[in-house]
Amino acid sequence: MKRKLAVMLGMLLSGQTYAQSTLIQYLSGKDNHPTVQWDFYCTGGRNSGAWTKIAVPSCWEQQGFGSYNYGRDYKTYGKNFRFADEQGLYKHTFQVPATWKGQTINIVFDGVMTDAEVKVNGVSAGAIHQGSFYRFRYNISSLLKYGTANTLEVTVSKMSADASVNNAERLADYWVFGGIFRPVFLEVLPATHIRQVAIDAKANGSLRLQAELTESKPGDVLLATITDKAGKKLTEIKAPASSKTLLEGNVNNPATWSAETPELYKYTLQLQRGGKTIHTVTEKFGFRTIEIRRQDGIYVNGVKVKMKGINRHCFWPETGRTLNDSIQLQDALLIKEMNMNAVRCSHYPPDKRFLEYCDSLGIYVIDELAGWQKAYSTKAGEPLVKEMVERDVNHPSIIFWSNGNEGGHNKDLDDDFGKYDLSGRPVIHAHHRPGNQFNGIDCNHYEDYYSTKKILEDTSIYMPTEFLHAQDDGGGAAALKEFWDLHWNAKLGAGGFIWAMLDEGVVRRDQHNIIDVNGINAPDGVLGPHREKEGSFWAAREIYSPVKIDMQQLPANFSGEIPVENRFNFTNLNKCSFKWELRNYRKPFDAQSGNFIMKSGQATAPDVAPVVKGSIQLPLPADWKNYDALSLTATDPFGRDLYTWVWHVKPTSVLIKDLTGTTTGAGNVTTTDSSVTLTGGQVTVVFDRGTGMIKTVRNAAADALSFTGGPVFTSGKATAEDMQVVADTIVFHYNGDMKEVKWYMDNNGWLRMEYNWELKRDAPFAGVSFNYPEQYMLSAKWLGKGPYRVWKNRLQGVTLDVWENAYNNASAGSAPWQFPEFKGYFSDVTWMEFNTVQGKFYAGTSDPGLYVRLFEFYGVKDVKPNPALPQGDISFLETIPPVGTKLAFNITNGTAALGPASELNHPTGMHTRTLFFYFGLPKSTEKAQQFNRPKVNELL
Predict the structure, then answer these.
(1) What CATH class does 2-189 carry?
(2) Which residue ranges does the record assign to the Glycoside hydrolase family 2 immunoglobulin-like beta-sandwich domain (predicted)?
(3) Does the predicted TM-score (pTM) go above 0.85?
(4) How many angstroms separate the CA atoms of 792 and 579, rounded?
(5) What is the mean pLDDT of the chain?
(6) Euclidean distance between CA atoms 339 and 547, whole angstroms
(7) Which CATH fold would you assign to the domain 547-650?
């Protein structure tokens, strides 16, 4: 009974699952939790030189052994650098029952870094395996002691004895580890069994299934039964068995597999002898057809598709490349959440479980043979191609095999993939040099916007397998909208794969558990190491939404009709759902953030075919104009929210009155030879007559608020020439690009600033700045787009609401990976509350399109951090700069080469804006009543 229970618990085999007469017995854990302790001896580095215990599977560096290496350390530390070449000696004792004798017993390793020498009971199981990311097995039937204890010994060499394996896998731009990092199990089969199955299931229902047997006898039969997801039998195919048998059949009108319709079927293949089934293999698959139509595009099931993709490493900070099912699922769901449809498995085959999630959720996959700028030799590479393809061949999600990365292509291996793939998937080269087109697809990396346009006007399909390098807060979704629109609208555009999904930060067990991203080498993700969502994550989600809505504001004659473009490939918008809401924003002095949903309803999903434009009609109530905002949420046929768009109903000039209240008259103006003072309510502001800048701000308690040093014009020249007092208004005239600033204070304490400027040259930003100590900040709350910061070329992924961010010193790409960042540019701000140790103060505007900049931050770390910032600490801006990429600084014209939105701003004409400031909370009952808000003691 115990044996049967153990068998039932071990029936899940990563890959094909064998029913009835095949058993799986794990010798290790199934993933990084739980694991199994084996005996272990490390020959070098930390905790070396003595026998102890280690968790299997694991990367031994993360268990406290050996030395850490990043793959580019040989470049970082020079020609005399040598990689840590320690070995790990593993021992494990296990038993097999006597009843297994006479069957085939394989020991299977899902992944070992790097060379693995395996012995059972002191006898070699076979040739040393070389290559980290591949499933390999040995038949150990003759080496076992049945019914008693067996000793497994595995010697793992971190550096391979084959130089080409090190070149392909370890001299790479990622962390390199050592150890048995994926599971180890025994595979128990009958002596005669089905060794391998490859399936070719086309979208038209045609089906071919090729089975390899260890041996066969006359009269042996193979019977394949095809069932749908409900378990209904659709067809049976039968053929005489031989060492390699091809079964052919057909399923009428199958539901096809695509990223939008991940329909899965199941085959059950039985090897029958004398009327009895002696072996059964069961596996899921999908009906789908992949085509490269040269000088045209990539087609799935006869429909042209474009890749909204990202590059993914198998990585987790605490456990390195040893993952678990929850991490695999989380990553697949995050890709779907970004509205992406594709992933490139860079730069090696992933865990099989991840591919299973891609099958079931619907994600196109590039499965890649390792080869980071240098390739395997033919001798080393041939068995690894075989292992990779045989493990992964029947996943419908895999639409391409990639033969290495950026020059790591051994062209002698190109035709090896087809030897094991019955469906004949295309092979691509993920390269970084122009002119290396292969199989009709150019995958060249890191072209700029203008060279991309040129390539798309050529004759090859263009699908960059890396673009918009996302180091720190640069790249990722910055400039993505223009790149995506280029590909969407170009005949030869096939989309591409952003570099990369996550910051590859490892918890350093030798450095007090800090998370190390190896300087600027590995913080390349739109997600942090623990999948913290950066601004580019949310921007990509909007840009890649298959329901595309470009309307930025409600037109004056808005009647509920919203233009929409269907960027699904297979799905009519009438299969989606659309929910509208009328919202009221929380008022500035409310204790909470967010909004109030006042009314909501469903819109009829429009009949808009894939890649066609149409409109959605919202059935809004007659009083819809009485609310602050309108939102629309699109949901796909699987119930996943695609995106929520929010538009102001009331203009900024009306919304600001929630902050400033009703004007009750002018405050007082007093002047001296050196200063001019405005006083109103409980607020006093003193200006320097010579510079026009604020000298001091005080509230009713006579406490100074350290808001000073402005206004400073952020671009160009602005020198105060003279000051006048005109009807309770202070007017400063300037020489230079800023022309005039007017200051006026209501007798309720609200300070108004009207200014104008004109620039006749390009500029990264334009507006005014003030000083305020960053160390005094506690939080900021605002009505505007948020909660994430933006750049000129990454304005997407933020929506209108009342947001609140606590102060943090976070920066994408480095600890503490706390998002959203407090510091940055924030867009479409109507008002902002600054909560400080000195109290609260407020700023707002009656004009649309205000950006607020908060303190010091940078997008990309470089010799000189980029982009440069305006003067001061807090800025109120009409324009903000674009952000580049790690590589944009090395291309002609730098960031500007990423497209029109990545150029500097080109301001024209005179620009004017009105700002409002309040430097003291209302303190009297009368004041609270005037603003229709609680008394101050209730606020506090």
Answers:
(1) mainly beta
(2) 192-288
(3) yes
(4) 30
(5) 92
(6) 10
(7) Immunoglobulin-like (2.60.40)
